[in-house]
Amino acid sequence: MITLEDVARHAGVSLATASRVLNGSSRQVGLALRTRVESSAAKLGYRVDAAAQTLARGASNVVGVIIQDLTDPYFAAIADGAIRAADLHDMVVTLGTTYRDPEREIALVATLHAQRARAVLITGSRVADDYMIGKLRAELDVYRSSGGRVAMIGQDLLGTDTVAPLNREGARELALAIAGEGHRRFAVLAGPPHLFTAADRTSGFVEGLSELGLPAPVIVHGGFDRDGGLAAADELLDMRADVTCVFAVNDVMAMGALAAFRRRGVAVPRDLSLAGFDDIPSLRDVVPELTTVRLPLSRMGTLALDLALSGEAERRVEQIAGQVVLRESVGRLGDAPVDTGAVAPPSVVAS
After folding, report:
1. Residue 327: which of 350, 296, 345 has the closest Cα?
2. Are 227 and 191 within 8 A, CB to CB?
3. Which of 19, 45, 212, 213 gets the most CB atoms within 10 Å of its CB?
4. Cβ pair 11, 40 in contact under 8 A
5. Does a cis peptide bond (omega within 30 degrees of 0) precede residue 281?
6. Could you tell me which residue ranges the HTH lacI-type domain spans (predicted)?
């Protein structure tokens, strides 16, 4: 195997000079020497030692992207945006999955720190657990103190650069838009009560209904995934609640609910209207097309990576607004919409 010593000998330079050229040292080497070393390395077929480069530079060209569930299209779309942006920065992405385990999330940060990752992106909702939030924040502080960069996609709770979706506001606008289609009696498949994203979307939807003087919705909690949506929808149907529209706080829950409705002989939107949140890419294959709140998921991943690699000292929070997309899963009731009075109409896209 060709070694760095072989390259140095062939080029007629010191081992230190060869290392500075090929292992990415910040110390400058003259053009003539650099060209000679690179030519020798090419002729001998020398391959750079990535570990040696990391030691020389103080950080690798690796960006760690930590997501909660690789099978969830929401996280897949965000990771895709981050990976595409990393290519533009000549960076390589290492992807880690937490399986919604906060201890595993902290362990992944520690591992990426030990591997001298240049930056870490964390995406996913925080849970209402001050101890675990504090523990993660402490681990991130240690990593940042050694020069690492961090960006968060989710709630602004970790003292880092953050891409923050406006979940409450988007759900409020969705409530106003669906009420504008004549609906007055709602249910919410609300996800886990301790999950901030689920809680924010639920409270925003309730807020929108309250502004219109409409009754509070029926609330059913469940898992924040497809199976959770299916189970929550079954529970709602068993309750025989008098509702005309169901809001699931994310699209994968809505897809689970749609499966439950079909199994129980409930047609959407003929018997019951349905809406979700996120506008995940796989919705293009859902029949009927799902009303939802569109978030620019891929762009959120790109923005988070750009924030992490920007090198700016001042912490930044980029708020991301959602856009209501009305589709055929929400049917129109009656001849006249609900009077929204002085409530500002939402930004709505009909699709």
Report:
1. 350
2. no
3. 19
4. yes
5. no
6. 2-57
For residue 340, what are the contacts with CB-CB under 8 A and spacing of at least 6? Answer: 176, 179, 180, 212
The pLDDT tens digits along the chain (351 residues) read 788 788 888 988 887 787 777 765 545 677 888 888 888 888 888 876 555 554 444 457 899 999 999 899 999 999 999 999 999 888 999 999 999 899 999 999 999 998 899 999 999 989 999 999 999 999 999 999 888 999 999 999 999 999 999 999 999 999 999 999 999 999 999 999 999 999 999 999 999 999 999 999 999 999 999 999 999 999 999 999 999 999 999 999 999 999 999 999 999 999 999 999 999 998 888 999 999 999 999 999 999 999 999 877 788 999 999 999 999 999 998 754 555 554 555 567 766
Q: How far apart are CA 253 and CA 249, in angstroms?
A: 7
Q: 162 near 128, Cβ under 8 Å? A: no
Pairing assessment for the beta strands 323-326 and 292-294 based on DSSP bridges: antiparallel
DSSP state of 347: P
Residue 295: which of 201, 179, 183, 222 has the closest Cα? 201
Please give the span between the terminal C-alpha atoms of the chain, in angstroms, as a whole number.
60
CA angle centred on 283, ends 186 and 332, rounded to 5°: 40
Q: Which domains does the chain have, with CATH numbers?
A: 4-57 (1.10.260.40), 62-165+299-320 (3.40.50.2300), 167-293+340-350 (3.40.50.2300)
Rg of the chain, C-alpha, whole Å: 26
Name the residue among 251, 252, 231 with its Cα closest to residue 322: 251
Question: Closest by alpha carbon to 203, among 348, 195, 177?
Answer: 195
The answer to whether the CB of 197 falls within 8 A of the CB of 273 is no
Q: What is the pTM of this model?
A: 0.81
Alpha-helical runs (H) found in 63-101 = 73-88
Q: How far is CA 183 from the centre of its chain?
A: 31
Residue type, 189: L
Instruction: Say if CB 186 and CB 243 are below 8 A apart.
Output: yes
Token pair 């029949």 in the structure block, residue = 287
